[in-house]
Design brief:
four-stranded antiparallel β-sheet; about 600 residues; five-stranded mixed β-sheet; 2 domains; Methylamine Dehydrogenase, Chain H; alpha+beta; elongated
Length: about 600
């Protein structure tokens, strides 16, 4: 290559080196300034939004204030992500500039050395000066580049933090957009819990269980649809808890609770609570092994102190519900939580502390992708439909009347379902898809604990010191018949075909004709009932408060089959599976074979 060509290449390389160096410095300065700007639009520095949120906490119904907060939040979010996008683009440009600078400088330097062979007359100190100049050029340029890349890394961390905050903000806004009664404060969904050991994962769409799957399991309080009917056969009729006769296993649970066992497949679920802790338990129903125990803690909106409740209600009176993929639990302080079957926490929230002089006791029930919550307290009576996927409120209906302690039942009328609830003075039905009231009838009074029963198109509602009412659903719902001879206080009635079974807290049991209310038979036992009767395999299973199970034939004539003893007191309703009964006693959980 001729000397002239070498000089041309050297000049081009020198020009590219100078231009790329200037480009690097300019981009580095822009990135540094952009990082400073990023801090100014971060949510932590948005004092205006913080001030408005404080004002909103003082007046949660101010829709104009909510709109203003959302608008400011949206502007801040757009500015933040726009700035971060610019930082990412700037980093790529900076990297490209550095690569071009290094290549062009290497070419320029190599040709300078070759030309130096023809310049022997140049003094040594000249090259020493040039070397020092190159050192400072590289040092200053490198300082700019390293600073820019360091700040780019720091901005990535801020970006991650802001995504987390934005996700929480989205859930908050969704909850605020749901119209709800002012006396019940729906807290934000807890989809991110850094303080717990389980990593929260986004749940994919879950296949819904069909009617056969529901009937084959025990998915909520009183079994399929909450109606007290078991479809299993070969249910045991003879056991003794003290001697261990026909007891497959017995385990003590860590915390006490009056909720009843719930079963899906190989898994059994119960909960326990005291003033300091609330826990959900998953047990292998075949072996009695405790698979996991998960705390319901770190829930936004959860009260610091547990509400006052009576001893016979406690803080874990409500039974869980499951759809075969996830299990849902609610506690007496308003905390509601969802786990998958591996014990991974999916979501949690607080529905507001219930103003309830006994304590919240209504159990959960499911319909499709809706978790139905009967949430009654002294200031308002609500029925709420939560999304099983994320716990968001999809509908919230305020009901007339007074507080109750009963649980919802699900009935099928034609091809559609209705969720039926009791409270003074109404029995009412709601569309489980949208919460719309379908009908209501005034027929009850007092503090209502029993849940509705259903058979042959007739709903049965009862309460002590009030009456027993049969509501015919054909055409327009109406009272078919009424009776006040035998009335439940706590235990719920159960109906199948022409038989309606009503137990009392004083120990009486009556079998009514569902069609006209005439009494087929009645029998008086020594001890009363809080546990609800279950019809299984042509028999009535009814356990008294001392733990004695009265097994009677479902017939027009009273026929006592057996009276096996658990060996400890209980107020919980048993769960049934194939050839098995599961009973929660005062101290232990039993599997009977």
């Amino acid at each position: 290559m001729t000397l002239e060509n070498k000089n041309i290449i050297k000049a081009i390389a020198k020009t590219i080196t100078i231009v790329s160096l200037a480009f690097i410095v300019i981009v580095s300065v822009i990135l540094i300034l952009n990082y400073i700007r990023l801090q100014s639009v971060s949510p932590e520095s948005n004092k205006v939004v913080e001030h408005l949120i404080i004002k909103l906490s003082e007046n949660s119904e101010d829709e104009q204030l909510k709109t203003q907060i959302r608008s400011l939040d949206l502007i801040t979010r757009k500015a933040f992500f726009s700035t971060h996008t610019q930082l990412k683009a700037g980093a790529l440009l900076l990297l490209s500039g550095v690569i071009i600078f290094l290549l062009s400088f290497k070419i320029f330097h190599s040709f300078s050395l070759k030309n130096n062979d023809h310049s022997k007359e140049i003094k040594t100190d000249y090259w020493l000066t040039k070397s020092k100049e190159r050192f400072w050029i590289f040092f200053i340029s490198g300082l700019f580049v390293c600073s820019a890349f360091l700040l780019m890394f720091l901005s990535g961390s801020a970006y991650t933090d802001f995504k987390t905050l934005a996700e929480i903000s989205n859930h908050t806004q969704k909850n605020q957009e749901i119209k709800k009664d002012s006396s019940i404060k729906i807290a934000t969904t807890d989809t991110i819990q850094p303080l717990i050991e389980d990593t929260i994962k986004e749940t994919a769409a879950l296949p819904l269980p069909d009617e056969n799957a529901i009937s084959s399991n025990w998915p909520n309080f009183r079994g399929p649809n909450g109606l007290g009917i078991s479809y299993h056969k070969n249910i045991p009729t003879d056991w003794d808890g003290k001697s261990g006769k026909n007891i497959l296993w017995k385990i003590a649970l860590p915390l006490h609770g009056y909720n009843s066992p719930v079963i899906w497949g190989d898994y059994l679920f119960v909960t326990g609570a005291n003033a300091n802790k609330r826990e959900v338990y998953c047990i292998n129903r075949h072996s009695g092994k405790l698979l996991w125990a998960k705390a319901a803690d770190n829930i936004p909106g959860s009260p610091a102190a547990a509400p006052k409740v009576t001893e016979d209600t406690g803080l874990a009176a409500s039974s869980v519900a499951t759809d075969g993929k996830q299990v849902y639990a609610i506690f007496g302080n308003g905390d509601i939580i969802c786990f998958d079957f591996k014990g991974t926490r999916i979501w949690a929230k607080n529905l507001g502390v219930p103003n309830n002089h006994y304590g919240h006791s209504s159990s959960l029930i499911l319909y499709s992708q809706r978790l139905i919550v009967q949430y009654d307290h002294n200031k308002a009576r609500n029925i709420i439909g939560l999304d099983t996927k994320d716990g968001e409120v999809r509908w919230n209906t305020t009901r007339p009347g007074k507080i109750s302690w009963s649980s919802p039942s699900m009935i099928k009328k034609g091809s559609s379902y209705q969720v039926v609830v009791n409270n003074e003075p109404f029995v009412a039905a709601y569309n489980p898809e949208n919460g719309k009231e379908l009908w209501k009838i005034e027929c009850l009074s007092g503090e209502i604990g029993p849940s509705p029963a259903y058979a042959n198109g007739i709903i049965f509602a009862v309460n002590e010191y009030a009456k027993l009412a049969a509501i015919q659903l054909e055409n327009s719902p109406k009272i078919l018949w009424e009776n006040n001879d035998f009335l439940s206080e706590v235990a719920s009635p159960v109906a199948m075909g022409e038989y309606l079974i009503v137990p009392t807290s004083s120990g009486e049991v009556a079998c009514y004709n569902t069609k006209d209310g005439t009494i087929f038979w009645q029998h008086e036992f020594d001890i009363g009932f809080y546990s609800s009767p279950i019809i299984a395999d042509g028999k009535i299973y009814l356990i008294n408060r001392d733990g004695v199970m009265h097994i009677m034939k479902l017939d027009k004539i009273f026929n006592l089959i057996s009276e096996p003893k658990l060996g400890e007191k209980t107020d919980c309703t048993p769960a049934f599976a194939k050839e098995r009964i599961y009973i929660r006693g005062q101290n232990n959980l039993y599997c009977i074979k």
